[in-house]
From TrEMBL:
Gene3D superfamilies: 3.40.630.30
N-acetyltransferase domain span: 22-168
Protein's name according to its UniProt entry: GNAT family N-acetyltransferase
Pfam families from the UniProt entry: Acetyltransf_3
Organism: Streptomyces filamentosus (Streptomyces roseosporus)
Amino acid sequence: MDELTTPEGFLLRPWLPDDASAVLRAFAPAEMDRQTDRPVDDRSGALAWIAERARERGARTGYSWAVVGEEGEALGCVALNVVNRAHDSGWVSYWTTESARGRGVAPAGVRALARWAFDELGLYRLELGHRTDNVASCRVATRSGFASEGIERAKLRYGRVRYDVERHARLADDVVNFD
């Protein structure tokens, strides 16, 4: 459970304190501010974010991995949260550092996470959502085998602006061309 590998050569492993610099780089863009409930704008914030991922993993309430490249640097994050055992479902999220975008990091990580969730946790349905104006996130979802299921109108609010969200899902018995 601690490490997963992808056919593309990425390693998924738990977040480590040594990853604080990568976490800081990832959360530097203003857009990433929305991905966390507390600021990650200094080393202590990055270490607190990493510690929270370890706490969730220990409590089995969330499973977050650093997606690591050949040089050992964390390039992104894939996570499974909101695991519902009554319905065998969970919520998938992902992000990458700016320098890792366009290199297949997120889709490779999400596919590995999905295989693990289906095989090891016995989940049947995985869901994710993205703002409809986030074309890159939609590409990650579809390249990871998640089918679009529709639009949730005005689901997210950032400041005074509301955003529609496209919901995607992947089922354990979906036939995908990369597993």
